[in-house]
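Protocol step 4 of 5: obtain the predicted structure for the target chain.
Materials: sequence only (see below). No template structures provided, no constraints applied. The aim of this step is simply to have a reference model before the mutagenesis design in step 5. Sequence pasted as it appears in the construct record:
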Amino acid sequence: MKLLLLAPLAFLVSAPRTALEADDALSFKVEAGTKLSKTFVTELALELEEITIALTVDGEDQELESPEVEMSIAETETVTFTDEYLALEDGRATKLRRRFDDLSETSARTMTDEEGESDDTTEEGESELEGHTVDLTWDAEDETWSAAFAEGDEGGDDELLAELEHHADLIDFLPDGEVAVGAEWTVPAAAFLHLSNPSGELHLDTPSDKEEDDDDLQDQLDENMAGEITAKLVSVEDGLATIELTLELTTSGEVDEGAQEVDETMSVERSRKVELEFDLEGSLVWHVEEGRPVSLVLEGELGFESTQKQSSDQGGTAVVFIQTQRFAGTLKLTAEIE
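Step 4 output (structure tokens):
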């Protein structure tokens, strides 16, 4: 191989940059009038690892065998919308028009009981927001987003707009100030919440979701999210910055589902507790010049535990039954912006 032939090629390839210039630091800087199409996909797969049960009667433990049950859950959620930026301030959108292009969900569950009998269920989820266009406006004084159906949209149920938010620009993953390749920083847990719930409450539900809807439990899971998200700028090449992400988070929530009088001799109280563990890694690609995200991938392990407790008074006898289901599996979140 002749080195003279290779030498000129060296000048045709841009050398990787090791630092960002002051005027093109990692920041969000799209201009008013810009339109971006954003697609967020969440893929979840869980397998039941263990069921444990406990029973006490007047404080005395009772021996029970846990059932031998197999269960798997697979869900895919797709959220696609187009944002038109109408106003921005200090590197953040303050007003935008969002058209919901595709809001869909597929959920499949398989359960096999001790006798080997299988029950397979597949459901499709949808949202009444799909096809609608909404104006989102930031109220700086109240620090809240307000939503209204855009001019020209046929409109719909205003309750669909109550918990919509703008958050879908992934700016929470960015560092404060200038950074060089190799720099690391901490990302707030809110970044993960915004990624996993783009645009807030979209009312994207399967029939089972609607039956099991519990806003209080979901609010607790959001509020109790804790742990660490770390980011590291690993390269800046051809105008694209690649940020490596590592995430370890946990959360939990518990709700009292209330008391019920079954008959004159029996009353029942029920409660439920949910715990989640996330161990994910991936990367965010950021367009430095255009000041916007290009793509994001986070994937890894997910742990899920649900404990249900039923306390009853059966004619003066106190009975407490507790069942815990432990699941383990994988979670993958992707975002594509263009």
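Step 4 remarks: The chain is about 10% helix and 60% strand. Residues 13-337 form one domain.
Proceed to step 5.
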